[in-house]
Amino acid sequence: MAFNVTRRRFLQSASLAAVSIPLSKVVSAETSFTPSPLEAKGTLNEEKVAGGICEMCFWRCQLVGKKRDGRLIKLEGNPKSIDNGTSICARGNAGIKLLYDPDRLKYPLKNVGERGKPVWKKISWDEALKECSTRLKTVVDKYGPQGIAVFPHGSSAKYPMHFFERTVGTHNVSEASFYQCRGIRDMAYVATTGKPPGEKVDMPNAKAILLVGSHIGENVHVSHVKAYIKGLQRGAKLIVVDPRYSAAAAKSDIWVKIKPGTDTAFLLAIMNYLVKNEKYDVDFIDEHGEGFDEFKAGISEWTLEKAAKECELDPKQIQEVADLLADSAPSVSIHPGRHVSWYGNDFQRQRSLACLTGLLGAYYSKGGWVPGKGPKVGGVSWAKHDHGLEHNLNYNEDEEAKYPLHPPGTPTELIRDAALTGKPYPIKGCVMWGQNPIQTIPGPDKMKDVLKQMDFVMCVDVMPTDATMYADILLPEVSYLERYDLVKTGTQWDFSEKQQQYIAARFPLVEPMFERKDQIFITNAIAEGMGYKDAIPVKTVEEMVDKNLKVAGLSLDQLKKEDGIHLQDGKDPYTMPEDFEVLFYNEDVEDLGFPGVPTYIPVDQVPGGYARLLYGRVPVHTFNRTQNNTWLHQAMPENPVWVNDQVAAKLGLKEGDQVGFINSEGAKSRTTTSVKVTPGMRKDCVYMAHGYGSANPLMTVGVDAGVDDQSLITKISVDPETGAHGMRNNFVKLIKDGKVLDIPA
Ligand code: SF4
Predict the structure, then answer these.
(1) Cα angle 440-629-663, degrees, rounded to a multiple of 5
(2) What is the pLDDT of residues 288-309, one digit of tens each?
(3) 59, 190, 259, 281 — which has fewest CB within 10 A?
(4) 313 and 415 belong to one structural domain
(5) For the CA of 53, the nearest atom of ligand 1
(6) If you measure from the C-alpha of residue 325 to the centroid of ligand 1, how many angstroms do you get, rounded to a whole number?
(7) Residue 27, C-beta contacts closer than 8 angstroms, at least 6 positions apart
(8) Mean pLDDT, rounded, for 379-391
(9) What are the DSSP calls for 180-237, one per residue?
């Protein structure tokens, strides 16, 4: 069987390979790292710079850089870091290629063509900022503050987002990290334990690790991968629940090849088995459990056999998983996942994960869910505008919430529907800041229509993404390597080591180039132009960071002396707060009209002739954001589609064949990609990496590379509790040489 991969090979393969092989391949292809004759003679002006914080993904590893003649030539992990240490991933290394990417936005641009078919004219910052503030103010004057929608992403977007929310007064802010990613998880855990879970499970000290859909190794966040590997090296058993033989599944002790959308049934059967066989932590439930009787009764129908039928599994395998978890309790890392916007029934699955953790007594236990106790720093705040609920799309006239368990901001679908219908009010101004909603949000054509009907669209970004094609004014932002910015705090990952906390601030490693500006400059100028000068909280990014640090008794100068990272003694992470509770049954959730006990809600079945489209991450890209990076593009230039080997044989498809796609709603892919033939895929699904297939010709490397999976995600599901999108309910057929291929049953 092709899946017989030993643990040793695993440790050498996916996770580590994910981090280092593409990088070495990439680096060896470049000449810039080869010592030059000048360097050999020692005549070059070199210096080391510390205090960078990576933002090639959201994880924010701490960096040092090497400069030659003022030009950044290499990035590494900051040796002082107790988070990522000296390691960074392939994307982190390739930050240099983002910094010097010739396709980067350089000057303020005005679109003198159409939205979607832009013709760019270079303009001055004065003209650009005047136009942004005047036209946004016109929208506010005509339609009220709620007439503006904001789509922010990344650390630099926080400051402008708070300006538009608090001072301008619009609720219509939708962060992809909440509504297309982790918002469901956070709200489900809040409804169960009162806290969002983060990802800080104590994997280094776990006896068992359960990953439901998480593909660590392809999903690379350096300290997280290191913690995971440490746990496996120390002997933790790994259970991976995934329809696909992922990098994690390849290393697992038990791979559960589950039918997509049925994970909650699987988890309920495990919990019911543990309860019925008294294999749960009675003391923990007595002390910290609430609503256990209702929970027990609510899940009692979920026998192993019933779940096995629903999930298309062997009941013995579900029992094997349950026994392994019980035998390893409480040192069990039930991973809460991160990108969990899957099927539109996801709140219940995430509630199940939170309850299972409680059932095993694995909160604040060695090897369990241990959030770590990091230090506190401050923030800066815009003056608050007093706005009423009548402006909030998430509330109807009776002030009843439509999605009562929604994460912060407003569900994206409510904003889009209001914009397209004008009801309950028009939305005519749009700010996209670091987000690319065309390739993030289901229904890209709907998003384009939303943008086209606006009176004004402004966009701030580093790269010319697909979304920037819909801007009227496009502003170039400095990258994370050229600016001061956020303060990151945390603890070390292995709690068996000395307890420590860190506070890191972002320092620029190089001066900004061309006419790029930072978020404080841009936001303050727009605020002033809109008449909110008095509300401006800080004048520079340095002042903002300094204010953040002051709360921790630090300053920017002090942190500079400490190479960007301040370390201090930590606290025992395993001490559970006295008032910690796990709500196995949540009465408030039930009063809101949803199941108070975790409940399985079936999803749409795959129609005949189609396969379910699944998507995920690859270690060398952060979705669309890195597609134009030459090193990363060389490492993985397209996103092959995984097709089951038996299905491929029936369709006459071979490894490497080029295929396109059509979905069950008639949407066709614009480009093609190659076929990866594998037994490691269920027959009723295909899989590809997310974020490929950019359409903007200004991204000269990433344009048309691979297939844009988002263009095939047109069927829109919304999680009823949170309003977040489910994105794995779309079904596709393959197209080869112009012929549409029916997927065999
Ligand atoms: S995981 Fe990689 S891309 Fe993400 S912050 Fe760390 S080095 Fe950067």
Answers:
(1) 35
(2) 999 999 999 999 999 999 999 9
(3) 190
(4) no
(5) 5
(6) 31
(7) 33, 93, 631
(8) 78
(9) IIIHHHHHHHHHHHSS--TT-B-GGG-SEEEEES--BTTB--HHHHHHHHHHHHTT-E
